Amino acid sequence: MNTMKREVGLLIYFVTLALTKTIVDPDVRILSEYIGNLMNRTLGVETIQNEVNHLHFQREFINGSKVADMLSETISKSVRSHIDAVRKLRKMVEDHLSEVNARWTACCQYDESDVKPDKNYKAKVDLNEVCGIVAPNAPGDLEPLSNAVLDVMRENRVNVPEIKWQYVATVQGYMAIYPAHKTPSCAFIDPRYRPWFIETASSVRKNVLILLDISGSMNKKYNSVPLINISLEAVSIILETLNPDDKLGVIAFNNRPHRPTGCFEKNMALATETNLSNLKAEFLQHLIPTGESVYAVGFENAFQLLELSIAKSNNSHAEDWKIILITDGRPKETNRITDVYSVIKEGNRRIGNRASIYVYGLGRNANMSILQAIASQSFSRTSATSSPPPQGFAYHVEEQSFLPNYISSLNEYYVRTSDDITPTFSVPYSDGGGLGLIFTVGLPILRPDNALYAVTAVDISVADFFQNSLFFDSNGASYFFIIDGTGRVMSHPLLPQPADHSDVPNFVQIDQLERHNGFDEIMNSMTSGGRGQKGLKIKKTLPIGYAVQEVDVEVTYFWRPIAAAVNFSLCFVLETNRFNVTLNPQDATFPGKPRTSFRYHRLDLGSNEDTCRHFYKKSTKSQSLVLFAPRSFVSPFRYVPEQETTSTVTSYFNMFEQVMKATSTSQVTDILRSHQSTADLFVDGVVSDVMWTSLVDRLWVNNTDDHIAQRFIATRTGVDRLYPGTTIDGEFDATQRIWYELAVANPDSCVTSPPYQDASGLGNVVSMSQAIKAPTTDDKSTIPTVLGVMGVDFSLDFLFAKVREIYPNCWSNRENGWSCMLVDNRGNIILHKDYTNKGVLEVKHIAGNKQLIGVLKNRKMAAQRRCLDLGEKVYRVSYEIKPNSYLNETYSGNVDICTQYFMAPVPHTNIFFVARPEPGYCVDSGCPPSNQTCLNNAAGSSSDGAWDCPCTQPIEIDNCANAIDLDDGVVPCYPDRQKISSNDDDCIPEHLNSCFNRNCKQAVNGSACTAMVGCSWCERDRSSTLLTTPYCSISEECYNGEEGQRLPGYEASAVCPVSVNTIDTVHLVLILVFGCIVLIILLSAIICLVKRRQRRNKEKEMSIDEEGQSTTSPFGPLSSPSSDGVESPTSLKNKGNLSPRKHSRAPQVIISVVDKDGSEILKKPVVLVQGGVTYGAPAPGVSATDLQRAKKRANSTPLIGRAFRKGNDGLKISPTLRLNCTNFNY
């Protein structure tokens, strides 16, 4: 009640103050003060900041050199652990070559019905088994691997939990994979053609030039297949053997040469996936055989291309150069073949005789003598002045299925001694199974004679390698990056995280991201394996979503090499004179302050006694729930794949619950020591953050504002509190949300992020957030240290209603009304009349208002920005409104009323108040979503200088060099921020009561209705017909103003099944008691009926005996007429082959008369007639006197007649008999 009175009083004060000014010059300080009071009242920002100011923080200078050493050693240790795993596997196979071997289940036939998905592999896997793959052309006498392979693979997984797939592939074509999983097909998988196998077996970078004969004779068929098709299949197999670092050239020839366009036209290009795909689609698939086969033309062009490529090669002598001729072996120069030999001899001489030639002759008519001479280059082995060219081979391909075996000879397996073996690291590539950017490390396995037996390898996630470094935090004062020996970037904060790669990677060179004077020296040292440090002045980019914010800072670069086995280098960039601010758990106690208990966000693994439903989420309102982001853990990527259990949650609870109740530093120390194994899971600062953030519960739990959707507080260590609490995806990191980033970039302001439509049913909301800072004590640092960010989601309609209450002229439907809106400093329209009472929200931008953006541009109050989104490979065009920009066109005398804008910054926020007259004909075109392609040009401006809406423009990609061409002067923007994902087991808990009673029905108009979170103004029925009387309803029953329409996401989620654990205890007891009562009643009724039937049967027996009648069956034998000539009715049915039933007496029929309550008042034997047949033995009939007597006994009660037959099987009702009552009146 006091809170309500205070709010009403403040609102009256604000409205009174606002009315003292006209709309042409509103006082924006009033809105600023209202927002500040709103944040303090709903969140308690000021209270929490005051409490934090009394805590004792430690400050120390960050030692950049020490941090760089630590990060380098951490990554090197991870590298060594993976290499050790490969070495153990290699040694085991070599030691067990002579053992009895066994073969495992084929991967394509593996039964995955009983295996579960594993997040470490992002697939269904069996961690206890290995599966196998056999190449289609493997020999019949295949040598399987030893069973000991499985034992070592299991051991590797235990020792290196983040290790990915493990392989052992033999030269015969058999491969074992761990863990076992199902593959789509058994066919067309040959491990010997995998790039990691070839690269490990040869360890020499290849340069391959394919010379393809497309003369007319290649149209001829061999075994019903055109030779050109066989040659293209051979090319396809060759391409599969190449690594992205290998170089490739292709020349097709007949009478003249034919080269592909693009990368392969004038040079040999990298064999990247993109280049190979383009080569197939744009060149190989369009080749048409024609003309004559002139070998001299083909080889002359081939050596010209090799000469150019070798001249550009940095290490040509250590590389392998091959020409591969694919032909039908029928050259035009058959009678003057020495001319061809001369071309080859001279061409190879020009490149130092480095090229070997492999020839594949297709079909029966190939002239193999000529092809063998070309492959051996025997004509070039007579010169004494230079070394002869390397030996090649010629193959006569008479069977298409033999192609893979022939082509495998290209991959020469170099014989090396065990002492000469070093691990081979593949070029990083994007994993097709969703593991992100990975690379493969391999080792060859040798026989005792040093001949290659197999290759063993493991896949390594790049994110796993850099796991600790990716989440290293120094209060936003630093960042780091990692490059390889060529300068390619492996990890950088301006690039997507390695785990987020899902497309073919186009690598970026480090000098494209670090564009600072003096950086060349640093890059040269890093690529050569050096170490050092250097200070520079740079422009630092801050992460605030798609927009760009740069600040000038002085930094020091500290670079270190990573383990020698992998050619990587790390650089740590630290701002000058920055401090590391920490809070020990012992200093985070609040003696005398009320504390809540600790509760983890996994409601599915804990008690459900106080759970409720907050829209579509299972929640609790008794306290906030705590979530730990991956960065909260010492080993983030070991935590993320782990499936949390009740035991895990209990261990968290036991430690944090005790710590939060501690009242002294010694108690905290003792508690952490007793829970050492749990405490060691978390990075420094997590325990302290859990403790000080717990103060929010006493501010939030009893605050029942109906315009609040959710409250939250997140810290730099990844601790996140939510109220009402609910379960969130374990990989969610609040520090990557835009509301957090905006608050960090503006630590002294209350910031508002663009509105959005909440996926869990909260409706259209807007987030406001504010930073909580460590107290400043002296002049050591003027830059505030952000400890965390508090935030709240408001109903958009509530905020808009409050703005109208403060500035009444913002009611545009009033006389002299104005159109009012709130705009952030990026030009996004935060609040607009078109947002209210809407189901589908489309955020507008001021660039869609050509009058306003034109005025701001001319006054130089707004600037257009471009940044590089390297994750999406686009330029992003955005806008920035300069701070303190003030605009008042209302006094200008402008005749165009639609351009009479007022704009002023709202103090202590990131928003501007904008207003203009609303005559009814001013139109704002708005802007489509920000990911639209720029309509005009890359700069986002048309020829007349008008600005586009926020848009994107594709970046030029140099596929030939596998690099991105970037515009100078355009800074990179941070990649797309993390999106919230739902749990796989999310469902709608319809059986739970709502957490809060939404008084929607009390609202009398649309504005008051939609200002309450979860309420919808219902205007249409289920057929979209307008209602006569609109009303306010909960959103779940009338979303977007239409009855019966569900909230977004409802259809995609299943309704939670109701289990015993989810039913309220009181309800459960009532159900059990009611069930017992019903069961007792049913049993009693059955017992009564049985006894009553028994009693009646006994009475009937006694009555018959009293009348002197036989107690035997009244129906006698059923198969023949009775002794008195009366046929049984059942005998008629026996004509249908019913089995006869034998009885000793003729049947008698008895009439029983009962009253309505079932009491028998008359029982007499009678004669019945049915279908002209008489039933029953002769006996006295029922006289009229008997009936009168019976009627008197029944007190004129209507009689009910029942006919019985009595036999050996007891007294039964005969529903088929009817009484012939013609001999008496009834």
From TrEMBL:
Key word Transmembrane helix present: yes
Keywords, alphabetical: Membrane, Signal, Transmembrane, Transmembrane helix
Comp. bias intervals (Polar residues): 1109-1137
Signal sequence interval, chain numbering: 1-20
Residue intervals of the VWFA domain: 207-410
Transmembrane segments: 1066-1090
InterPro entries documented for this protein: Ca_channel_alpha-2/delta, VDCC_a2/dsu, VWF_A, vWFA_dom_sf
Residue segments, region Disordered: 1098-1143
Coiled-coil ranges per UniProt: none
Family: Belongs to the calcium channel subunit alpha-2/delta family.
Entry protein name: VWFA domain-containing protein
Record lineage: Eukaryota, Metazoa, Chordata, Tunicata, Ascidiacea
